[in-house]
Amino acid sequence: MSDQASLRHTPLHDLHVAWGGRLVDFAGWDLPVRYEPGPMAEHLQTRESASLFDVSHMGIVELSGRPVELLAEALEALVPASVTGIADGRQRYTQLTTYTGGIVDDLMVARVGPLLVLVVNAARRDVDLAHLRAGLPDEVELTERTDLALLAVQGPAAVSAVAALAGERAAVLDATVFMDVIEVELAGVSCRVSRSGYTGEDGVEIQVPADAAVDLAQRLVGDSPDDGTVRPAGLAARDSLRLEAGMCLYGHDLDESTTPVEAGLVWSIQKRRRESGGYPGAEAVRRQIADGPGRVRVGLRPDGRQPVRDGSTLVDATGSEVGVVTSGGYGPSVGAPIAMGYVPPEASTPGTSLVAVVRGKELPVTVADLPFVAHRYRR
Question: Is the peptide bond before 67 cis (omega within 30 degrees of 0)?
Fold first, then answer.
């Protein structure tokens, strides 16, 4: 059992308590897993209107100390994405890779004026920081921005709700598209806002000074967390939303034994980097792109109403073990259990029948297309 006193708190911790959040240990942080009336309502609120997620446990890292073009070249030695191809005010998704092509972590990289700004997973932040420090030239200054909170406002009403706090810059914020990053004042406080998120819905992620985060959250949610356009949501809803959107969760669908090709992330490796390499594991990744990987990530639709959880073994019609479930749960928008896992290419065709072994019980599942719910980003 976790020692609650040892858990780290985000700047919104007391607000979560005041809003009635049920707090749990997540990667050493005391975070809300749900509010009332529960994760399903929060999930559907996000799909239909907007929700506020406190993701301040994520690591925000700035790279500086050299011209930004040289920073981009230096970071390209550690990731497969074309960092030099990121325009000012834009960001890209990529991965830190091992020398065998495995994934150390997945992350976002933004170019903001003279800086590169990285957002990394909470559970991997110490690993990532060590990996970056070891791999980047000494001239590159690496600054972890622990003075910032990170708020995600997600859903079809999210951008208009945030833009209402942007004053004269409201139209500029509203005009942004997926993966844009701008500096804008919200309620009089300078913030860095990216049009992105982890739900498959339109929305923004806001880097805000920690001492201004509570006020901003309260302005977005309003007087009552139960009846506004934007309502607070917890980790459980965030997980079901990303699962419906077919997005990977590090430690489940991604790890150091999984390559970007196996995970279906080749789209995040631009053509120049596929050809030129120059990052750890590039040869292994290039070989898998050319010849095909030995396993691939797929969607799974269990029969019936019982969810299939991560770690469940997948077997084929002959009873042979062919794969494993890496993420699973109930999809409120789908109205049924859903899952993701890894299987050989020959078992990856949508419609293929498999069996998931859950605590000794065999449950039929069918390979399905990803995502389960179409993304609704503003392109």
Answer: no
Q: Which residues of 327-342 are buried (b: 16+ CB within 10 A; e: fewer)?
A: bbbbbbbeeebbbbbb
Q: Which residues contact 68 (CB under 8 A, 6 or more apart)?
A: 111, 113, 114, 115, 116
Residue 316 is part of which domain span?
A: 294-379
Q: How far apart are CA 70 and CA 64, in angstroms?
A: 10
74 lies in a domain? no
Residue 373 in domain = yes
Pairing type for strands 321-331 and 29-34 reads unpaired
- Both tokens of residue 142? 């690496």
Here the CATH number for the domain that contains residue 184 is: 3.30.1360.120
Burial classification of residue 33, based on how many CB atoms lie within 10 Å of its CB (0-12 exposed, 13-18 middle, 19 or more buried):
middle
Does residue 326 sit in the same domain as residue 186? Answer: no
3-class secondary structure, 134? helix
Residue 260 lies in a domain: no
Same domain, residue pair 219 and 307: no
CATH code of residue 367:
2.40.30.110
How many of the other CB atoms lie within 10 Å of CB of 316?
A: 17
Number of domains composing the chain: 2
CA–CA separation, 189 and 6 (whole Å): 31
Whole-number Å distance between alpha carbons of 160 and 177: 13
* Tens place of pLDDT per residue across the chain (379 aa): 456 779 999 999 999 999 999 999 999 999 999 999 999 999 999 999 999 999 999 999 999 999 999 999 999 999 999 999 999 999 999 999 999 999 999 999 999 999 999 999 999 999 999 999 999 999 999 999 999 999 999 999 999 999 999 999 999 999 999 999 999 999 999 999 999 999 999 999 999 999 999 999 999 999 888 889 999 999 999 999 999 999 999 999 999 999 999 999 999 999 999 999 999 999 999 999 999 999 999 999 999 999 999 999 999 999 999 999 999 999 999 999 999 999 999 999 999 999 999 888 999 999 999 999 999 999 9
In a domain, 257, yes or no: no
Evaluate if pTM is beyond 0.90. Answer: yes
